[in-house]
Input
Amino acid sequence: MMGNSPTDLARMAVKEGADAIGANCGVGPETTSRWPASFAPPARCDLDQGQRGLPTVGKDGRHNLPDGPRRFAAFVPKWSRPAANFVGGCCGTTPGHIEAVRKAVDRI
Output
């Protein structure tokens, strides 16, 4: 959003003394699934968690997050390789999403 790449931000964080780096939601799981690879080197990504897809606005004016548990959990292998040690869920995830993530982690 501000024109900084994940690699630039990772380098800055390491320079300032960060021991680990995380990727959070805001841009959807497809985008965050590409970040861990760009963090290493110079740092490892300890946490990657996405939201349930990019928000859309329904006819009622409410925001909707489209991804169900299965589609959300399909990103776990990308989040986990090569560097994320912890994966989880952010905006809009439910216990069903986290259960699907757990099962995906168990398969890795």
